[in-house]
Amino acid sequence: MSIIATLFGQMITFGLLVWFTMKYVWPPLMQALEERKKKIADGLAAGEKGKQSLELADKKAKVYLKEAKDQAAEIVSLAQKRANDLAEEKREAAKQEGERIINQAKSEIDREIQQAKEELRQQVSALAISAAEQILRKEVDINIHKEIINNLGNQLGQA
Amino acid sequence: MASEVHEATGPTAYIVHHLTDLKVGEGFWTFNLDTLFFSAVLGIVFITVFKKAADSATSDVPGGLQNFVEMIVEFVDTQVKDSFHGRSALIAPLALTIFCWVFLMNAMDLLPVDLLPGIASLFGIPYLRVVPTTDLNETFAMSISVFFLIIFYSIKVKGPIGFAKEMLLTPFGPWMIPFNLLLKLVEELAKPISLGLRLFGNMYAGELIFILIALLPWWVQPALSFPWAVFHILIITLQAFIFMVLTIVYLSLAHEDH
Prior knowledge:
The complex is a heterodimer.
Chain A: H1 6-135, H2 146-158
Helix pairs in contact in A: 1-2
Chain B: H1 2-7, H2 11-18, E1 23-24, E2 31-32, H3 33-55, H4 64-83, H5 91-107, H6 115-122, H7 136-169, H8 177-215, H9 221-255
Antiparallel strand pairs in B: 1-2
């Protein structure tokens, strides 16, 4: 048990081992570890980003949905208003048509009344003339009193 | 020492045999072949596994091996970032190498004490110590390398003058220069010595207890060696961890300007 030349042999071995580790073992391992660390960090960051964008999309979707709902409600109310207007218009048109028909019927009736009155008057005047004729047969010369009779007839016609 | 042990028998001979290295060379120029061999093999195991993981490292979903390796790498990286506040391309790989290599060498402790030496003796290899960290040469090789790094970074960060100032003028100011220098030298030298001795002592003691247990009758051995091995799983990890953390701390101290 003594310090002998073996020491130098061991120092050389030790030196070689350290050199080899330093040159060929440590750097690639550390590089791989760093790369993996970076990869994991990137992955986590990407995940976080994805989560954020998902939240954003969710918010956007909600906004769009709300807008769409509002628009739909607006459209529905517009349509309702339009339908009401149309119904109002139709009702108005129908009313006018009815009034028109009524007026027409009224004027027809008036006209017929007028006609009946005319006929009646002529008949009355003819009746009156014939009655007067029968009463005045003997005293009235038809030729002489023709003018009076006609006048009478006209007056009757006007009544 | 080795030759006389080889002849003897009995418990003492068994223990000494297990604590004798397979050597070539004479005097200072002796090489502990077992220490060199096993540490190199385990070092190769370490870099092979980690190189494989590093080659196939992707930022995609990691596989089993990659996951395991990344776990260790991240663990070491966290330790380095906690203690060391400078920027250095060396510290983290150094800490990783120390942790894994020391752990693997310590883990040889968990193999049955007679397994590999027994197999080796079949091939005519008389001595074999399978745990490189029970060899002072191994632990001091690492701690002295760390010591050189401490000196290197101290001079690099503080500059030669700054480093000299720190060695001479702290903690007691310019009137106590010799005393300061002595204190600083002891402080700096204590670092590699304590670092190397701590690991060596722990592993040596642990291995010795395994050897002692192996001397007991076979029906007692499991009752003792099993709990000791379980406890030792903690020790080998802890020692590897301590060696790594102290290395980081010493180097971060070297980077700090006073």
